[in-house]
Amino acid sequence: MEKIKVGVFGASGRVGKLLIEDLKQTEGMALSSVFVRNSLDFAIDPSVLVTSDMHAFISAADIIIDFSLPDACEALLEEVMKTPKPLVIGTTGLSVHQLNLLKQASEMMPVLYATNMSLGVALLNKLVYQASAALEGFDIEIVEMHHRHKKDAPSGTALTLAESAAKGRKLNLDDVRVSGRDGNIGERSSDEIAVMALRGGDIVGRHTVGFYNDGEFIELNHTATSRNTFSKGALRAGKWLASQEAGLYSISDCLEL
After folding, report:
1. Which of 52, 78, 101, 151 is deepest in the core (most CB within 10 A)?
2. Domain ranges of the chain
3. 222 counts as catalytic
4. Dihedral, CA atoms, 95, 97, 100, 104, nearest 10 degrees?
């Protein structure tokens, strides 16, 4: 059986480097192309195409996995619509325009977009939805912690968890989200969902969703101890996506949660 050829976009990033390493041990998949703006600062198998030509990069792969930055992801989306390929996107902090491009691309090819590729977070989203619906009257607060180098806040994962919580209450997240409190702001409203961001050290990622009521509270936690959980999750998603029809998919679809 022929291996699925994988193109890695964002290879110089933390997860991109892990994808390249993990592909060496992933059955049924092989690294075929890497897109770089300048040059790689690490050695790579000479059989792999390393290029700054976006079209050549896409053409050499059966599927593309993207862990880059929002502007780079936007350029990829614009180019891949000319040569549609299954696309796994793990880039966070996308703008409304970039998300609309993603949806447009999904009309031509299978696109799996996930703000977090881990199995644990996929399950956590499901639990948050269920808890939000069941625990009527409980206040919902979300806290996320990441390393000092993370550029977007709150994290994409935290916003996805907040969306799950809002759906459980049949609320529009944009109407109820709070991302900061300062000064004499008055009492907390019953519907608001707070999403707070902490940054420091080398924390890979920790998310806590709390449901607080008079006399009791429940907190659901997920802690990532290694970025390999994201790279391996993305490869699992890519293997699944390679045989899907055009459409927009989530990590939950891949894991059948």
Report:
1. 101
2. 4-113+227-255, 119-224
3. no
4. -130
pTM: 0.81
Q: What is the mean pLDDT of the chain?
A: 94
- Which residues, 6+ apart, have CB-to-CB distance to 70 below 8 Å? 91, 93, 94, 95, 98
Q: Which amino acid is at 90?
A: G
Choose, from 17, 85, 146, 232, the residue flagged as catalytic.
Answer: 146
The H or E element spanning position 98 is: helix 96-105
Determine the topology of domain 4-113+227-255 in CATH: Rossmann fold (3.40.50)
Q: Which fold has domain 119-224?
A: Dihydrodipicolinate Reductase; domain 2 (3.30.360)
Of the candidates 55, 49, 65, which has an alpha carbon nearest to the alpha carbon of residue 16? 65
- Rounded Cα distance between 113 and 250, Å, is 6
Residue 39 has pLDDT above 80, yes or no: no
Does the active-site annotation cover 170? no
Give the chain's largest Cα–Cα span: 65
Coil, strand, or helix at residue 249?
Answer: strand
Residue 1 above 80 pLDDT? no
pLDDT at 187: 95
For residue 216, give both structure tokens: 């009791």
